[in-house]
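task queued by scheduler; priority normal; single chain, no ligands, no partner chains; default sampling; output format set to structure tokens
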Amino acid sequence: MGRKPAKAAAPRLPLGEEPVRPTFKRERAALRRGLWPVAGCDEAGRGPLAGPVVAAAVILDPKRIPRGLDDSKKLTAVRREVLYARICASAEVGIAVASRERIDRDNIRQASLWALARAVKALPTVPQLVFVDGSDRIEAGCDCVAVITGDALVLSIAAASIIAKVARDRLMAQVGAAHPGYGFERHMGYSVPEHAAALSRLGPTIHHRRSFAPVALACGNAPDAADGVLPLEAGRNGSNDASMEAATGKGLPLRRARTV
């Protein structure tokens, strides 16, 4: 009795691409070249309609890198808080805050670059090399390498993204407590429907960025094209916003860290 011909194997479905995770490769390469300490820096809050931009710089200890570091946008709020504590317990951290006034005066890009540079200066140890998220290098006082989507590629930048995000969220929760009705503690100032409705109903606070189109319109002013008008899908609001820029770290417990 003859054998039945073997069935052809079913074609395999193509596997999806491996998820991109940040690594310590660039930092280790710098260490082999004799460049150390190496810092990563990132900011949070470029898009919101209210509140400051918060920047962070982090020097990770190669022997004590917390597990699970990733781009802050890929992590839940609970996970970010856990990693924030672990980073502060094992790494050197600097934080800087660019106020709403500075954003309106200098524009969001310049205010962000200023905060990033100040965060590096706030580090307890002066780095020899800085990796910064984005396409712009900063005045870091040492070699600086800009890495596009760096928070998804470079572990030190990912750590900085977590520190900046958690620090800013805590500040915005304080703003929300001072300005009930806006929901800042939930949307952190981004231009979600809840925020747009509150802005229309209650008007702008002192924390709203007048150079952003939706806020300018709420104030009854035509937005200035030179300010770089952002769409509504961008967006955050209390007490004097300038005091945030001069923050001393209140509400942001850090170990081996400085805040300016």
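post-processing summary
- Strands lie at 38-44, 53-59, 92-98, 129-133, 143-147, 257-259.
- Residues 16 and 152 are 18 Å apart (CA to CA).
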